[in-house]
Fold:
Amino acid sequence: MHEMLEDFARRNELRETAPWLKLFLGVASILICVSSPGPIAPLLVAASMSAAILLLAKIPARFYTHLLLIPVSFALMSIIVVLFITGGGRVLVDLPALPLAVTTEGANLAILILARVFGGMCSLYFIGLTTPMTEIFDILHRLRVPTVLVDLAMLTYRFIFILIDEAGQIYRSQVMRLGYGRFRESVNSLGMLAGTLFIRTWESGEALIMAMDARCYDGLLAVPEENQTVSGLSLTVALVYIGTMLWVSLTSGGMQIL
Amino acid sequence: MHIMEGFLPSPWWEIWFLVSLPFIVFGVYQLNRLVKERRETLPLLAVAGAFVFVLSSLKLPSFTGSCSHPTGTGLGAILFGPCIAGVLGLIVLVFQAVFLAHGGITTLGANVFSMGIAGPAVAYLIYKAGTRAGANTYATVFAAAALADLFTYVVTSIQLALAFPGTTGFLGAFMAFAAIFAVTQVPLAIIEGAIIALVFKYIVHLKPEILIRLNLLPESTIQRLKETAA
Structure:
C-alpha cells in the first residue's frame, strides 16, 4: 500500500497558509516547467520546490526521496524511446548490432523532458504535501465547478480512506494465510480481495444513503467556508518567485547542454 | 498507464484537454439528470469511484517485476456506462495525481481521454456486444476489461507518438512506444481481465441484487450462472 501524500498535507508547517496561494504557486510552477524551452528553469523550479517542501513545510527528507523514485520507471521507459527516435546533430552513441543511434538532438530533447518532468513532479508534490484535499474542494466551489461534480468528489474522497483501511486488513490476512505464495494464488487472492471489497463498498454506500436521508439530505452538501486571508508579504514573495522563474525560462530559452 | 506531469509539451496537453472536455461535460449533464431522478445514485457512484481508486493503488502481481497497477475503470464502465465512467475517471485521476503522484495536472486531459473515456468505451461496447450475442458472461467481462486495458495503453502510445514523432515519423514512434510498454502492459491487461472477471463472479454469487438493480443481467441469467457453478 502506498503512503499517502494526504497524511502529510494535514500536519505540515505550511498548513495554515492560504490554500489558494499554495495552489496558485504549484500550478503556476507546473505551467512554467511545461512551457519552458530550456532545461534550466524546470531544474530551478525543482530545486526551489524541494527546498520549500523540506525546509518550509518540514516534510521528512527520507519520505520525500522515496516519493521522487515513484515516477522513475515510466520516465526511463519513455525517455529511452525519445532518445533513440529523435535524430539530428552529431552521433553520440551508436549501437553496433541495431540501426539505433543517440544523437545530440535526441539527447537534448531527452534532458529537456526529464527536467520538465522533474520540475513538474516537485511542484505537484508541493501541492499534494501541503494542501489538504478538503481545502481544494472549497476552492473548486468558489470557481463555480458544477456542484454535483464537487459533491461526488467529496464523497469519493471520504470513502477512499475507509476502503484503503479495509483493503489493507484483507490483504494482510491473506498474506498471513499464504495467499500470495505463487503467481496463480496471487491472482486468485487479489480477485477475492477486489470482489469482497466491491460488495462491502456497495453495502456501505447503501448505509450512507440511509444515514444521509435520516439527516435530511436534499441533494446538496453544505461546505463550511474557511477564512483565507493572505499576508501581503507571502503574496509578494510568491509573485516575485513566479516572475523570476518566468524570466529565467524566457532568457535561458535556446540554451542546450550538449 | 499514466502520463507523468510535464511529459507532454505544448500544444499537446492543451489539445487533449479540449478533446476530453465535451465527454466530461456530457457526463456531468447525465450525472445531474440521474441524481435529480434518483437521489441514491450519488453515494453509490461515490463508493464506486473510491473503489476504482483503491483498486488502482493496489500492486498487481506482474511477470516483469515492474510496478503495475490495474486501471479499474473497465468495471465502472460496465456497471454505469461510459459517460458516467468518464466523470468517475476524472475524479479518480485528480486524486491519483494529488495523493499518489500518478499522472499530473497538465497531463490530466490526455490521461482522462485514454483511461476515462477511450478504455471504458471499449469495455462498454464489448460487454454490450457479448451479452447480446449470448456469450459466456465471465468470458465477456474478461474480454471487456482486458481489451479496455490494452486499448488504454494503445491510446497512450498514440498520444506520446503524436507529441514526440522524432525523425521516424508518427508510425515509427508509435511502434517504438507501443513495443516498450507492451512488456508490462500486455501481461497486466490479462491479469486485470482475470481479476475483474473474478470480481464479477463474487458479485453474482454473493450480491446479485446489485446487477439486477443496474439492469445489467436479467434474473434468469444469474440463476443459470449460479447453477452451473454449483
User: Anything to note?
Assistant: Chain B has one domain: 12-229. The CA atoms of residues 102 and 123 of chain B lie 22 Å apart.
